[in-house]
Amino acid sequence: MVYAKKIMVWATTEGDGLTWLVALAASVLLLLWICRKLPLKPRSSSEFPRCPPGFPILGNCMLLNGSAHELLSDLAWNQGYGDLFGLWLGSIPTVVVTSADLAKEVLHMNDKILANRGSYLFLKDLYYGYNQGIIFSSYNPRWVWRRKIFSLELLTLKRMQELQAIRYAELRKLLKRLQDSMDMGPRPVDVGQQVYGMTANTTLLLLQSRPLEKAIIEPPELVHILDDETLPAIGDFVPWLSFLDFFNSRRRWRAHRRIDALMESILGERRRLMAHCSPDELPHDFLQVLLSKEGALDEEHLTTTEIKAVVLDMFAGAVHTSATMVEWAMAELLRHPECMRRLQEEVDSVMALRCNGVDSVDLVVNDDHVQEMPYLRNILKEVLRLHPILPLLLPRVASTGFRLGKYWLPPGTNVLVNAWAIARDPRYWTRPTEFWPDRFLEVEIDLHGQDYEYLPFGSGRRVCPGMRLGMSVVQVTLANLLRQFDWELPQGQNANSVDMSCKGGLGNRKAAPLLAIPRKRNL
Ligand code: HEM
């Protein structure tokens, strides 16, 4: 303060206009610097875990910029904040959990109290509001009902078997696209983008078993919009600053109008079909299940808005998760050619056995085949350990006060579980930062969220319902990519130069796209 005053006094007595400006800027910077060093004591009760210093009003919001999971891990491990620390996201009390024991307290012991999600501005502008879908809805009987339909009508083993043909058809298209690009001479392809296109189109077909009649937005573009815009805004944490988000809000709203036009055309097309066909003639798909509940008079009905919100959640949940996972897996395999070779040998030997001498070149590796590939499964477990797709899971919000560790925390507290940090913690993992799929030969650990040192799909009431479908899509895609092609890095790149940094945001996308050259294998 004293220094800021001195600068101003000097400027008024000695300086010209330019000096004035410089002095003003220096004072503001000095004040900001001083404020940054102040801990946010006034708002935190003595019961609240220790918080890193933050800015006035904004608190620790800046930590959410960029790779939040890495910044939060650094605070926990290197800056002495430990397994449980606090943040003030504007006026929202938040705690960050960085150990398996505390993750268990959050996801198991306090699962019901912490089963809510926060309410974000993007839900209002871009999605269909707070309590209409599944992913960001609060915990209430309607959410239970919508999630039940989602799980039982889209994601059961039986349903997945019925939908296999659709998935394999899209996979064949992907393999053909890669083949075509190779026919023009060896050239790098953007692996993530290729797979992304496939998972987006597959999701549409899982919904309505046919391509779009009127493509207001193609599925990959729809999901890109969701990915880019599903981010908290400053107004979520400091409501009176919502006006700063005005232009982003307008952009989200415009995107929503296009998304809604797409939803209307999907629903409208099916309603027209329903008006002209007998029930037996209608497709037996997820969209039909959703629409069959639309007019129901009991509590098992769905409103039109709920149907649209659930469909949107299907895209938001299914597409980028699976595609990102394939991209990280390919990146790790290109960095570890010995693992890639071993995996190719496994795929080849299972296919040779299964096809029993019959020409198998055109056969896709399918869900039954991958069941016999333990190394593939271990590779994917290791990919999810090092690169969990939602590194902080999805934030949970307390409905009442609750105990966590030695603290009693108030209702409304946000809880972040740093699954990324826990999965790299030397207390639970030997050689924690190394890509070493064989660790899972010795460690009996599964994906269902019962082992709290490994939470790639979350755990408890809000665990990912799409785990089976997601894993199946990823396993089958990776096995086919490696069966049909040998892969190498573009000229000038080697295993050590592959950029493994992530983009930031809710999902753990690769910052730089993975480019690799496919070469046809002699099968
Ligand atoms: C490999 C692929 C996938 C990964 C790694 C993944 C991971 C996750 C994670 C970590 C969560 C948050 C769990 C929590 O907060 O505790 C989640 C939630 C969710 N996922 Fe997935 N997911 C994948 C695929 C899918 C698929 C294919 C679908 C749907 C078809 C899906 C639908 C959802 C939904 C609806 C939620 C919200 C659940 C709720 O809040 O009740 N996911 N996913």
Automatic annotation (TrEMBL):
The protein's required cofactors: heme
> What are the transmembrane regions?
17-35
**InterPro entries named among the record's database cross-references:** Cyt_P450 (IPR001128), Cyt_P450_CS (IPR017972), Cyt_P450_E_grp-I (IPR002401), Cyt_P450_sf (IPR036396)
Does this entry carry the keyword Ubl conjugation? no
A Gene Ontology molecular-function term? Answer: iron ion binding
**Which amino acid positions bind heme, per UniProt?**
464
Is Transmembrane helix set as a keyword in this record?
Answer: yes
Q: Which UniProt keywords apply?
A: Heme, Iron, Membrane, Metal-binding, Monooxygenase, Oxidoreductase, Transmembrane, Transmembrane helix
Which terms does the UniProt entry file under GO BP?
secondary metabolite biosynthetic process
**Which Pfam family, any one, appears in the UniProt record?**
p450
Q: Which family does it belong to?
A: Belongs to the cytochrome P450 family.
How is this protein named in the record? Cytochrome P450
Q: Which organism is it from?
A: Ceratopteris richardii
The lineage is: Eukaryota, Viridiplantae, Streptophyta, Embryophyta, Tracheophyta
